[in-house]
Description:
GO terms for molecular function: endonuclease activity; hydrolase activity. Pfam families: Endonuclease_1 (PF04231). Helices cover 31% and strands 15% of the residues. It has 267 residues and is of the alpha+beta class. Strand 3 (84-85) and strand 4 form a beta hairpin. The protein is globular, with a radius of gyration of 19 Å.
Amino acid sequence: MLATRIRSWKSVALTSAAVLVGLSAPTLTATPAAATTTAYDSTYYKNAVGKTGTSLKSSLHTIISSQSKISYSAVWDALKATDQDPNNSSNVILLYSGVSRAKSLNGGDVGDWNREHTWAKSHGNFGEATGPGTDLHHLRAADVQVNSTRGNLDFDNGGSSVTNGGGSKVDSDSFEPRDADKGDVARMILYMAVRYEGDDGWADLEPNEKVNNGSNPYMGKLSVLKQWNEQDPPSAFEEKRNDVIYNTYQHNRNPFIDHPEWVEAIW
């Protein structure tokens, strides 16, 4: 069952007075996400609500670190449930391209879909090991070729169109998802940064302002991810996915899907 969500969005007003005195109108940017209320605030998130900054991040880390883990082979069937096409139960919706593809076409051949690590597994060298390598909150079904094009690139704006990428772009050092997936990607990356803090045998994953992070446990660019979080709020598909992971598989939640405003509160 989807969490009850109450969201109010701020509006930006431009005054005519500024124009009258010859001033330039301000550039419009993504509107900060307003405070949200969910059915989990008095239970699951009760120790985090009301906090900001490092205190909020620490509280969320403690909360979401309590999870059930699955094997990498089990991820195949899990993605068939988490990424199911709401209009066709025989298909999954692919990240980056937005294509609906048969669940049975999972594998490594052209025309198949495979398991995309949005936080590239080489960034921190966690590979496919049970833990960050199998965490469903950042694993998505993706077209084999589009996934290969993304590789382990950091995320940023710009580049040329990706073949069959649904509007996604790529250049030599970064990947830009299609508009409808930008917020999803941002919230998955920032979930990983809160969940994996280096206290459980894995690297301390953190967002930064760079690309070309290579094997370092960092993923950029934070300023762009924050903008994407604002521009592309959580969708019904994303919210349902969060619920399926919580109720059926890992029993932990991505807090930035429930509370996208917490991105700005921490970073």
